[in-house]
Amino acid sequence: MKSEKSLNTLDKTATQTLGEETLIPHSVYAKKLRPLLPSEAFTPDGSKLVILFINMGILLLGWGIAARLDHWPVYLLWLYLPLALIMGNSVIALSFISHDFMHGSVQKKSRLTDLISFLGFAMLFMPPTQWKSLHNIVHHSKTNSLGDPDRNYLYQQPNTWGKWIQNFFVPSLDFNPFWFFIVGMAGSWLFHNFSNLSSILLFNNKSVDYVPAAFTVSVRDRWTIALEFIGILCLHFSILFYLGFHPLKLALGYFLPLAIGHSGIMFYIYTNHLVCRMTSVNDPLINSLSIRVPKIVDRLHFNFSYHTEHHIFPSLNSDYYPLVQELIQTHYPGRMNLLDAGEAWQLLIETPRHYKDEVTLTDYLGKTSVNCPLDNSAVTPLP
User: Fold this and answer.
1) Helical segments of 216-331, H only
2) Is this structure's pTM higher than 0.85?
3) What is the DSSP letter of 316?
4) Residue 376, in any domain of the structure
5) Into how many domains does the chain fold?
6) Labelling 248: which of 68, 154, 169, 368 has CA 20 to 30 A away?
């Protein structure tokens, strides 16, 4: 296909132009830093399961209260908004705990693993088997490379419906603030998830061109993903049924918490890699970004802001990510991408959102091109 030829040409040209001498494979970082971490950092932290069930309880409580909203006076309905915000944070917390759970940092695999991961990812409409393939296997092994489903689209890729829709959803130099904040933040996770889900269930072929990078799964996993997704839809339908399909109850008790939760998750995901350069070698200090957020936010979200650290040690207890960051700054000074959350967001809205090559970003029409603002691999000395 024409798209595959374009990708291969880009990969060859970028490698010849940039070389790989300044990039360090992820395994090198892990081998050097692991002996410097305490052994308990790699022991599953089962206490996070308690927090997972607490957040499930918060959602159940919120839906229980929402079921009675039609009996509230109109002038008191605003009192439900703080609870909707807390429920939205519970959606974020469930997602991040489940993320750690699937990496093995919360509990070793058991007979309850499938059920817990199903419940944890249900609010994301994400079948856990799909997550395992997309995130654990593909994204972590091909981070921000041509084969990564989570990267920016390439300018050279066909202008498919997927590429066109994402152009409206992601923050960039030419994004529309109204469209983005009303629809994009809350809807971009669903778009990303369903585009990859449909690619697997309908085609399961790497030639699919409406996603940034298609991946395949086994026949057994494909059926499992389909059944898990049906189960998730049934779970959501049961919530809608419990709320009586009442517009007010659904708006405040269902759609608003999900919108808040999905928006919070996407804030992190947008900053993880999209302003970083692509790399033909999986170098997490170059192709990933960690952000600084208030300490209370890190506690609520299990240090998800330490994203580079996670890519070096995916199965590490997240409580130890700050220590990993200290070690990186000691042994690889100046090499790591680390910004305040506000700075990272500013870079997103000041740069276009498609890759022209490994170190150049351009817009949908190819009219504006800028260097990736975090391309620090060429100026940072190797240890």
Assistant:
1) 219-242, 247-250, 256-273, 284-287, 295-300, 307-312, 321-331
2) yes
3) S
4) no
5) 1
6) 169
